[in-house]
Write a structure and sequence with these properties.
The chain is of the alpha+beta class. The protein has 8 helices and 10 strands. The structure holds zinc ion.
């Protein structure tokens, strides 16, 4: 069952690869592509399975591509059973149920993975953005709604003023998505990451999206990426902390080329 799920996930991965090459960015189109790839893969898996089943039964492999011939052969397998589990050979309704469940285990991950592909896209450049993670983490705010509102109001101090030297049990991770061709298209993504030790003493973590693809100016994005945890115990900032200084520095950088 796990391998079947991985097969479905692989189908989703192939769909995402194709959608990315084709620069497709409609969530429903993505989901539909995931379904088509999953369905085609399931069909071909059945062609191969029936080839192997025929070879085992009649000593000669046959490829059935015609669905009516496939269904006839499947009915034959369902009537007699093909394999055992725990000493029982599933046949008839039980086997059909297993096949239907199997189909869902392939199709659902394929559709969900394709649907969840949402890399930001720079329309003027016709280009996907590239992702970079900030080197530092940020102290989790008490009020997430206020935090979001602040970022939406282009006040990034809740991030700049709360950079951490080392990750805490609950902290924010930030990612920047940048268009590689222009300085315009830039997005900020913030996740709240919770880490804890489970009963066995193994580290576990969970993520919640706090801010998804908020358009921000490139200067602030670069400044966030420039924050580094300094071994001397001080957070180093290549750009000044205050936003006014930041803007001035940004312009100077532009002048210097
Ligand atoms: Zn661009």
């Amino acid at each position: 069952m796990i391998a079947t799920g991985l097969f479905g996930a692989g189908c989703g991965g192939c769909a995402v690869f194709g959608l990315s090459l084709g620069k497709v960015r409609g969530r429903l189109t993505n989901a539909f592509a995931g379904f088509i790839i999953g369905f085609a893969s399931l069909y071909l898996a059945w062609v191969w399975y029936l080839f192997l089943a025929a070879r085992d039964s009649f000593g000669q492999g046959l490829f059935f591509f015609d669905t009516s011939a496939m269904f006839s052969f499947m009915q034959l397998i369902a009537a007699n059973g093909m394999w055992e589990i725990g000493g029982a050979t599933p046949t008839g309704g039980a086997l059909y149920t297993i096949w239907v469940i199997e189909a869902f285990i392939v199709l659902i991950p394929a559709i969900l993975i394709a649907f969840s592909a949402d890399t930001p896209f720079c329309e003027p450049c016709n280009q996907w953005s590239e992702e970079s993670a900030c080197s530092v983490t940020f102290r989790a705010p008490e009020d997430l709604d206020q935090f979001r509102q602040s970022l939406e109001d282009e006040n990034y101090s809740p991030l700049f003023d709360n950079a951490l030297l080392s990750p805490e049990d609950v902290c924010l991770h930030a990612k920047i998505h940048r268009c590689p061709k222009c300085d315009g298209s830039t997005w900020l993504e913030v996740e709240q990451v919770r880490t804890w030790l489970d009963d066995k003493g193994e580290a576990q973590s969970s993520k919640d999206t706090v801010m998804k693809h908020l358009a921000i100016s490139r200067q602030y994005a670069e400044a966030l990426l420039a924050l580094l945890p300094d071994p001397s115990g001080v957070i180093s900032e290549e750009s000044p902390a205050t936003q006014n200084d930041l803007v001035e520095e940004g312009f100077q950088d532009e002048e210097l080329g």
